[in-house]
Amino acid sequence: MSTKQERLVIIGGDATGMSAASQARRLRSPEELEIVAFERGDFTSYSACGIPYWVGGAVDGRDELVARTPEEHRERAIDLRMRTEVRRIDVPGRRVLARDLEAGEEYWTAYDKLVIATGARPLRPSLPGIDASGVHGVQTLGDGQALIDTLEHTEGRRAVVVGAGYIGVEMAEAMIQRGYDVTVVNRGKEPMSTLDADMGRLVHEAMTGLGIEMVNDAEVTKILTDDDGRVRAVATENAEYPADVVILGLGVRPETELAREAGLPLGDHGGLLTDLAMRVRGHEDIWAGGDCVEVLDLMSGRERHIALGTHANKHGQVIGSNVGGGYATFPGVVGTAVSKVCDLEIARTGLREKDARAAGLRYVAVTIESTNRAGYYPGAALMTVKMLAERRTGKLLGVQIVGREGAGKRVDVAAVALTAGMTVEQMTALDLGYAPPFSPVWDPILVAARKAVAAVRAADGQPG
User: Fold this and answer.
1) Nearest-10 crossing angle of helices 15-27, 309-323
2) Beta bridge partners of 37
3) For 146-184, b where at least 16 C-beta lie within 10 A, e where not — what string?
4) Is-contact 191 216, C-beta < 8 A?
5) Which of 169, 168, 162, 87 is CA-nearest to residue 124?
6) Burial, 441: exposed, middle or buried (Cβ in 10 Å; 0-12, 13-18, 19+)?
7) How many CB atoms lie within 10 A of CB 435?
8) Strand locations in 301-440 (E)
9) Ramachandran angles phi, psi of 23, nearest 5°
């Protein structure tokens, strides 16, 4: 007796969508499961995180960022329809309305199972001149190509980056690598709002040392243009900053308008809400993942929107396993992220001080300076580690690191400790690798943990 073929429909052809499709195909044959995927853009399965490095010249070309082409997906019996945008989800009717952007035709496609992987949209404020020639976002490969095309046909060498989060600092580096004079306009008191302000200050000082003009506490009010409609400057309330190119790095929001119109549950940050299996809450045959969902922060117990490729790929694997008849879960995150600007590495995981306060936690915070190698070894450079621990229990709450080579990936030790629920005292006994080219005898993470132990004891009136 033959089994009825089911149809899986996927909205979005990047990390989550195509990871889910590939994993489901590994588990179920084309005779058992038909897979139809819709992608409104020109590319699939690419690394958006790599765009700043492509723009800056560290990556040779656009194709280096593509993990799998549409043709490769189709060879795996996935009906991938490019340049096709889903316009509506009919949940009661179990179907989606798609529009072929080339032909202009619309049609309905029924589904047995649905995956929503619509990603996120970049913030683009409604400001005078925001759509001027020379103003660019960097969300997609197409965006990256458009920016590179502009840079290759622009005579001036002045770049203004609006925003100082991950994309902002990475694009500042890219423009420095291209030989531009770079100004970063940031509405916050310090760059990298994912860090506490004291650690953000270290990033500010380092970026200034690299020749980047940092303008903090400043809100862009308009983009000024010349007679040809091309950008010439970025204006704030108090000043104008000349620009031959403007790059927007203001962050993203979940792309969930389709889901909202379909009546699917959204969280406080606008992202879809799912269970541990990445199934949309209250809907047995609809899954969602990637930048369009909110995830559980294991430290605060709250839902957050975190747009990272690491999460998106994991979500796709979990969804594909469950759609394909297996079983997998995504338990949540501790908020780990790394970035760099030139030779400065920036890392964080867990809670910042304001996060700990918002969660009602009593905590201690310590900061130490150490080196990435033994002090006598050539190339030893300073790094700063900040660590938060809960009072009384000593449980690790968060770590932030700013430094040179070897600083960024040290945060992984803290991420594991957070996930395991370790105390800072337990961390002091971790058997971390040591050799003079890689670390001092006491690794900076362990130095910070020892200081945190002493702070916890002092806060509770215990002998140090």
Assistant:
1) 30
2) 10, 80
3) ebbebbeebeeebbbbbbbbbbbbbbbbbbbebebbbbb
4) yes
5) 162
6) exposed
7) 10
8) 303-304, 337-341, 344-350, 363-371, 382-390, 396-403
9) -70, -40
Catalytic residues: 49
Q: CA-to-CA distance for 423 and 364, rounded, in angstroms?
A: 13
The pair of three-digit structure tokens given for residue 250, joined into one six-digit string: 């203001």
- Here the tokens at position 120 are 């996120």
* Gap between the Cα atoms of 353 and 200, Å rounded: 13
* CATH 3.40.50.970 holds for 6-121+253-323: no
pLDDT tens per residue, range 192-248: 999 999 999 999 999 999 999 999 999 999 999 999 999 999 999 999 999 999 999
Question: In terms of pTM, does the model score above 0.90?
Answer: yes
Right CATH number for 344-457 from 3.20.20.150, 3.40.50.720, 3.30.390.30, 3.40.50.980? 3.30.390.30
Q: Which of 391, 412, 396 minimizes the C-alpha distance to 449?
A: 396
Dihedrals φ, ψ of 235, to 5°?
-110, 140
Locus of tokens 């080219």: 437
Question: In this predicted model, what pLDDT tens digit does every residue of 83-131 receive, in sequence order?
Answer: 999 999 999 999 999 999 999 999 999 999 999 999 999 999 999 999 9
